[in-house]
Design goal:
about 350 residues, alpha/beta, Rossmann fold, Helicase, Ruva Protein, domain 3, 6-stranded parallel sheet, 8 strands, globular
Length: about 350
């Protein structure tokens, strides 16, 4: 089952808790997907309902990719100590990426006195282990929440603190830190504390309190370059320098942004949608929104245009390292070159140096 909203989580958790209360828990549960905060929260609530983690005789935790499968199976076949069953928690085993045949076979006919909870980062749904749990147990895919779901959740967090949060504040917060609920919750705690005594969190509060990363600032600079807003692009660059940011770090991120735009452009040209672009580019869970932004930024460029810009960035880096140009000037010249208007229609750049 795919978990696509907070309501999905609550509804499914209630169903699972009721199964446990009725004495009908499944023997194997699998939690995986991009949304780490909900996955972790769900794991904790499930364990609280199913077993006592302090019961070291009947609760066992394994973590990492060096777990001995036979040790786990042997433990699973051991009768619980003064209890109805034992619970085995396995985290990030890698078995669902490599398709652990032994565990797949065991879970077809497990001991009636054991329950497994698997929590994994990587998943191959073609593997036997996944298919076995999908058929005989419960698998839950925690997808990254879409922005409307995240905004509703943020409003709920604010309400829990006796506050409201404006639409502008929610939009700015997700722009700055993405859609990862764990990260958002940390920022919301700070915002609730900062605005204590008021009744609403405003966009200005986010502006003041939620720091913009170097990557976020460079992303805005790229937006200005793409929009041919030369004055703004240069001012953003000078602001970064005033904050003691190194030109080489700015150049690295500038190169990466245009390279990502090029990759996204190529994938979009091949017919990939947002989720396909995010998957192919291995975007982190809290940055999959970039699968929309990169193609939009690249819309006015051809793939060849973008290749040329990336090449120019790489050559500028080489010139800086060899001492042929000062780092501050080298980055500045790139910004000037690609934020200037060079004719109408498709991008027309000066002859490559």
């Amino acid at each position: 089952m795919e978990i696509k909203s907070i309501n999905d989580v609550r509804q499914y958790l209630e169903k699972m808790l009721q199964e446990i209360k009725d004495g009908k828990p499944k023997q194997a549960y699998l939690l995986y997907g991009e949304e780490e905060y909900l996955k972790r929260q769900y794991k904790d609530k499930f364990l609280q309902a199913l077993t006592d983690p302090e019961d070291t005789m009947n609760f066992h935790r394994f973590e990492g990719n060096k777990i001995d499968v036979q040790e786990v199976i042997s433990l699973a076949d051991t009768l619980p100590f003064f209890a109805d069953y034992r619970t085995i928690l396995i985290i990030d085993s890698g078995w669902f990426k490599s398709s652990c045949e032994e565990m797949a076979e065991y879970l077809k006919h497990p001991s009636e006195t054991v329950h497994f909870l698997f929590v994994e980062k990587e998943m191959d749904k073609r593997g036997k282990l996944y298919k076995t749990i999908n058929k005989n147990g419960v698998d839950i895919d925690f997808k990254e929440m879409d922005k409307p779901s995240v905004h509703r959740w943020m409003a709920g967090v604010a309400a829990g603190g006796g506050m409201k949060i404006s639409a502008g504040a929610m939009e700015l917060l997700t722009q700055r830190i993405g859609l990862d609920l764990g990260t958002i919750r940390n920022e919301m705690v700070k915002l609730l504390s900062y605005t204590h005594g008021r009744n609403e969190i405003l966009e200005a509060d986010v502006e003041v309190l939620v720091a913009r990363s170097l990557e976020d600032r460079v992303f805005e600079m790229v937006e200005a370059i793409v929009g041919k807003q030369q004055k703004k692009a240069l001012q953003l660059y000078y602001d970064l320098l005033s904050l003691q940011k190194r030109p080489n770090d700015v150049l690295y991120l500038l190169t990466r942004q245009f390279n990502n735009m090029m990759q996204a452009k190529e994938l979009k040209n091949k017919g990939y949608d947002k989720s396909g672009i995010a998957r192919k580019m291995n975007l982190p869970a809290n940055q999959t929104f970039l699968a929309d932004k990169y193609p939009r930024q690249a819309a006015g460029y051809s793939v060849e245009d973008l290749k040329m810009i990336v090449t120019d960035c790489v050559e500028t880096e080489a010139a800086i390292k060899s001492g042929r140009i000062a780092d501050k000037l080298g980055v500045e010249l790139l910004i000037v070159k690609y934020s200037a208007e060079y004719g109408q229609g498709n991008c027309r750049f000066p002859a490559h140096a």
